[in-house]
Amino acid sequence: MADSVFMAELTWPAFEAKVKANVPVFFPLGTTEQHGPHMAMNVDVVLPTAVCERVAKNVGGLVVPTIPYGYKSMPRSGGGEGFPGTTSLDANTFSLVVRDVIRSLGVKGVRRLVVVNGHFENCWPSVEGVDLGLRELARDGIKDMQVMRLEYWDFVKRATLDRLFPDGFPGTELEHASLLETSLMLLLRPELVDMSKVPDDGPAKFPTYDRYPTPKGFGPASGVLARADGSTAEKGEWLMSDHVELITQAVKKEFGL
Amino acid sequence: MADSVFMAELTWPAFEAKVKANVPVFFPLGTTEQHGPHMAMNVDVVLPTAVCERVAKNVGGLVVPTIPYGYKSMPRSGGGEGFPGTTSLDANTFSLVVRDVIRSLGVKGVRRLVVVNGHFENCWPSVEGVDLGLRELARDGIKDMQVMRLEYWDFVKRATLDRLFPDGFPGTELEHASLLETSLMLLLRPELVDMSKVPDDGPAKFPTYDRYPTPKGFGPASGVLARADGSTAEKGEWLMSDHVELITQAVKKEFGL
Amino acid sequence: MADSVFMAELTWPAFEAKVKANVPVFFPLGTTEQHGPHMAMNVDVVLPTAVCERVAKNVGGLVVPTIPYGYKSMPRSGGGEGFPGTTSLDANTFSLVVRDVIRSLGVKGVRRLVVVNGHFENCWPSVEGVDLGLRELARDGIKDMQVMRLEYWDFVKRATLDRLFPDGFPGTELEHASLLETSLMLLLRPELVDMSKVPDDGPAKFPTYDRYPTPKGFGPASGVLARADGSTAEKGEWLMSDHVELITQAVKKEFGL
Amino acid sequence: MADSVFMAELTWPAFEAKVKANVPVFFPLGTTEQHGPHMAMNVDVVLPTAVCERVAKNVGGLVVPTIPYGYKSMPRSGGGEGFPGTTSLDANTFSLVVRDVIRSLGVKGVRRLVVVNGHFENCWPSVEGVDLGLRELARDGIKDMQVMRLEYWDFVKRATLDRLFPDGFPGTELEHASLLETSLMLLLRPELVDMSKVPDDGPAKFPTYDRYPTPKGFGPASGVLARADGSTAEKGEWLMSDHVELITQAVKKEFGL
Amino acid sequence: MADSVFMAELTWPAFEAKVKANVPVFFPLGTTEQHGPHMAMNVDVVLPTAVCERVAKNVGGLVVPTIPYGYKSMPRSGGGEGFPGTTSLDANTFSLVVRDVIRSLGVKGVRRLVVVNGHFENCWPSVEGVDLGLRELARDGIKDMQVMRLEYWDFVKRATLDRLFPDGFPGTELEHASLLETSLMLLLRPELVDMSKVPDDGPAKFPTYDRYPTPKGFGPASGVLARADGSTAEKGEWLMSDHVELITQAVKKEFGL
Amino acid sequence: MADSVFMAELTWPAFEAKVKANVPVFFPLGTTEQHGPHMAMNVDVVLPTAVCERVAKNVGGLVVPTIPYGYKSMPRSGGGEGFPGTTSLDANTFSLVVRDVIRSLGVKGVRRLVVVNGHFENCWPSVEGVDLGLRELARDGIKDMQVMRLEYWDFVKRATLDRLFPDGFPGTELEHASLLETSLMLLLRPELVDMSKVPDDGPAKFPTYDRYPTPKGFGPASGVLARADGSTAEKGEWLMSDHVELITQAVKKEFGL
Known about the structure:
6 copies of one chain form a homohexamer.
Chain A: H1 12-20, E1 25-29, H2 43-59, E2 62-63, H3 75-78, H4 91-107, E3 112-117, H5 123-139, E4 146-151, H6 158-164, H7 179-188, E5 210-212, H8 233-255
Parallel strand pairs in A: 1-2, 1-3, 3-4
Helix pairs in contact in A: 2-7, 2-8, 4-5, 7-8
GO biological process, one term (chains A, B, C, D, E, F): creatinine catabolic process
Cofactor (chains A, B, C, D, E, F): Zn(2+)
GO molecular function (chains A, B, C, D, E, F): creatininase activity; hydrolase activity, acting on carbon-nitrogen (but not peptide) bonds, in linear amides; metal ion binding
């Protein structure tokens, strides 16, 4: 069997050896969510997994399986739960999954963990999951696990954003199914993107509040919050390159690698 | 974009169209668990996913993302939580995940669901998850979802088992990382099997009770509960063929397809 | 006051003395569930309690009160929740009960515990309950509790089964309200059995999957899954004798008594 | 089979018939708790069960199995969790048990329920359990269940208390393992009382607050909060007679029987 | 900035200094609940907060923010959830709030805590909250927190009650929105009392059981369970004086101040 | 009694009348958290309460009691849980509180609700709480509650921010205990601010990831994340004026007032 950066592709003795060597372990958090009429719904699984794979290779680490169902989509950042195909967990459920995986990994000896989030709404319940996991581990006598938790899209150079958005970056929350994600998918899974279906009903103009029940027309009917036209694999490469370089740097710095 | 049997590879409008057509939806339940020194730890993800993929193709259905972290391994059926790499959820967490996914799918219009379990210990918390999901949907006014729930390995012909085990089938519980699973992996992901590492410390001889804490030597040190030698891709093909044929039949019968 | 094997029939100083002597403590898990038109609904309480009483006498142990409400009945093993009188708990509730009782006993000094299950569906949530209980006790600084967990019906000799089923044993799952349970009830509480009401609509022929909602006619209308005719107190005596002998043996072996 | 007031001693068709006749169903709540050096620990199971049995006979009702593990003992009313043998559940666990049993009974058609509490500390989590059970039933479309919830000891005539306590009744909270309970046990299970062991370290003199951790000497070392000397079966009969008469009256009035 | 007895009015360094000095910390538990047609709904917030403020001044302690939403009102002690304005939490929610606040304070170094309850129904879920909080703290290695838990109204002199109720005290449970609470509000927040609206439909005559659903006319329509006429600020002063004196005494005694 | 915008200062009949008139109800969410060495820890209670009070007056609405304990502080936005005095709830606890209050208000007839958050970290668990509350209400048959959910600081004019931050706005996350909050406190509760203690160790320079355990020096030791010098009551007035005007506008628009 070939070596693999994906933990689930290893035998248990191979995994055990890696854990004894204290390699960093990457835990990608995704979801299954509408990403416009031009793109598949696995975007938030594909992207953080790909980032983790590349960074793990850089630092000799491992990637554990990606969570495929995340926290509920919010209208102002992901179109909301009203869209067909968006399939989500309650916050408590999601936090318990993160807690249990972290506890399980900690009990097995993992001491350097990087939680890499790929779905905006996962951010906060994953913070809670990490806190609960570490709290439980401490009660089980394991008090020396080191954790980083991050959103991969925060690791991008100013210059890259400027190159991508000559008219100004609309901000992370609106970047749902838009230029960044579409470009990265064109790089990684071009067969799951159909640029001819890119809608033009964005960018979204949201008020500064949530509204329940979500009114008709609260966001673009397409589910694309900003704009996706102009997406290219090359732009995806710029982004991926930044993500991998900057996260690799941060991981090396934090874990003294 | 090509059509895909995997729901997460569709756009939301494509998914919506399938749901309106009331196609059966398959929900595979796996885990990440040691499967001996000769095989990767994703066996319980790979196998039910592959079964679902094939059956879904037969009936025009869809496969939603496979749960990658399942219920805790028990020593008498999976080697137990003591093995490196086995990464698991508490029963309540697992049941809540199943509940939430079913509720989410039901709210989106799915009315024919087949829960396909690929990890022995998931059986019971998945029963609970289905019950909780349907109870919640009924309270939300959705009372007509039809669900089948099955373990894929129960769909095998007597003749096939006789062919595979001329000396008698040791039973489902001991079939962990053994002939059946190894043969299926040789068929599907041969690069994740190393037959030269197949251990010979089985079959396990368990008492008729659980013991806490798990005593040293309670099961084979390899984690392989029965025997894996003699596994071949051909035998995997026999099994897969049965699984797909018989589950397809059952689904068609139950859903009147 | 006479000595009693039932902990709840002792005073607290008497109980304290037994715990200080580190006697084994037996914890029977039952439920209240239909057992056919010929038998009372307390079968799963009466049987494990009786087994525990006899084994506890053999080893100088104690029996704590039997749980009277267990996990939900499943159609393929107990007729399902649709039957009148079947009164059940959610899995999480049941596991929390088991957890709390174990934690409470552990805090009081019990170090040798035997969980004796008498209701098929309790098996898995009781596994979870034991795990949760021991996890909490460890966090409370109590790390030396020894636990066995068993289904009493697994302690029977091959020869006895052969004597009882000359045509072959139909298997544990179908043995609901059937020959084994009816014979044991005839031995223990004959006034709660009416052999003239034994139905003949079994044995059940279930498919290899669960179905929700349970279709009409999924199992025998009587709730008896196999056959109960031919049940006698004598056969109950054969079974009880095996259960008590083999469990006594196992407990002595595991606890070094 | 003889008819029985205990639901678990009926077959399911017999139970079904009673439910169709809308008979009142009694649900006793007990616990396993120290009751002094002179009495067994099943007092809070024996007493409410006996009360329910008698009232149910009066009104043609049924008694479902008694909960044997109740909410945690509090020092000022039951001696506290520090006593050997007191075996208890967390409040949430206890409330969930009550919720689940009520939901289960409601789904089966029970529409007149009397929850009869026999353990002081169960009072409040049982209130919550009833509320949660009825809330869930309403969501399941069952909105016409009638419930009474009571502590059996509140059904006693002033004259009886005056006869029992010529010097004044010390109050319900201190009546733990004292005159009332001891007399009732002498009536019902005299073999579980040893009057020669009645302690004289009471009555307890508690401050008007709880204290954590419970200080040494916070209550009588015996666990008897008031006085048990002078208890007789005859006094038990006075009490039982009141309990049964007054509860029967109340049930008839509320349910129009 | 002036010193304040209210912790939330301090800066964090000021709070830190107090905690290092191990001052007693008071945690008031209230709710938002109907208190008759003559009084505002914040009675159970105002009263325990005022008591805590005065006692804390006496002993150099601090008062943390008062819980404004408590456990559900019960018809026999607070009129029940049916009244407009009564806004409440489930028992589990309330206990978790108490647990979390206690854990948070304990982790920050608080070692002397007085939980002061001002809403009858909070009593039991607050007992559970304290138990859960201390259990968690112990697991986090903090085992030396001292806690008192009390209902403020239990700290009153016999002579005062006699003065207030020449015809006999009707008892704590009926004292909802009645003489005691109204007098205390007249003392503390007279602008929130309108004596001209005091109803005369009390005192309540409840049976000795709860009834679900609450029947029409189960208690006084006004929500005042006993009588409020005759309330005066002077009587409020008698009460407050007792509460503060006796609680101060108890706190000094228990904490050796 | 005078009319009050604060619901808890009304009698229940007064509240009932307002609810029948369908006035908007405002629900402020705060916490108790360090806000630097120059300011009290009740900032996140005082500010949203004051905003709600003013907006409610504008639209004839009511303000229900402010939640005083919020979700755990995160180092990058509030200094983190390590600071003395920060007293917080787990995410699930907080969401349950929000759920229960919303359910309680909905059952009482409230149909227009504005959840006004004043603590950054409450944002996401309050989203979950609203979702859970509305889900439960729908199951209870109440499907027409209209909810807005907002962070008050998002209601500020561009021109105001430009006036306040001539060198550019550092962003919401860093605005903890800084210019905005300090100015608002100077406006509302000047006695709880001591400008002479404003620290100069900010602004914080955080990496783009969370780190557990929080490393020494991860943020400014003062707990002030940006800069607070230059804060004035006048600037507070600019802000408050914007908040009240813009939220009033939004509420009127959404509720058609």
